Amino acid sequence: MDILExxxxxxxxxxxxLEAIGLSDKIMDKTLSLEEYKKLIxxxxxxxxxxxxxxxxxxxxxxxxxxDYEQRRKxxxxxxxxxxxxxxxxxxxxxxxxxxxxxxxxxxxxxxCMYVLEGATLGGMxxxxxxxxxxxxxxxxxxxxxxxxxGETGPQWxxxxxxxxxxxxxxxxxxxxxxxxxxxxxxxxxNFKKFL
Length: 196
Ligand code: HEM
Known about the structure:
This protein is mainly alpha-helical. The protein has helices at residues 3-21, 24-28, 34-57, 60-63, 75-85, 89-94, 108-133, 144-147, 153-168, 171-195.
């Protein structure tokens, strides 16, 4: 089984759990309120802040230059959303995230975490369409985080998969990649549960 098939098979249940607690029904049927959208952005901000810090501290850029990590960071997008939604920064940066940060063991754990963060942009394409049609959100012009790479989502995902598959071809890589992906999903889950 290649690494992508293995990741899909072993973490599908985690994705489904996250969807179930992540307001996805309301997102998709366009009943999500502005307050709920703000909560969603807040929780993504908290989780991405912690995870990107961890990825960077563990040297993701140096270990995987082909990823072009800098332009995959989601924090600049979340900062823009926070600004445009008028969410106060101060209490947000003092809020402690819930759950256990994933153990991103070098080098392969970093890729497992990146798989979850990058894969979310695929779901984002579906989500952003629904958000744009939601009349409770009609005052908003931009959905920076959920819109993410826009028309570049497909090519960005393909380039990520090239790196993932090259690295995941080593048999010793598979288990740490899958384990870090699982822990990353669970970290999102703990924070969705607490803050949504
Ligand atoms: C409302 C919530 C969500 C919905 C409706 C949703 C929907 C989707 C959809 C439709 C895909 C498949 C895209 C495709 O195959 O072309 C997908 C893939 C994926 N999503 Fe989600 N998603 C949601 C939340 C999340 C969250 C919060 C995360 C992680 C933080 C996430 C991580 C992923 C990953 C890693 C994949 C890639 C799976 C793969 O192809 O290997 N999703 N999602």
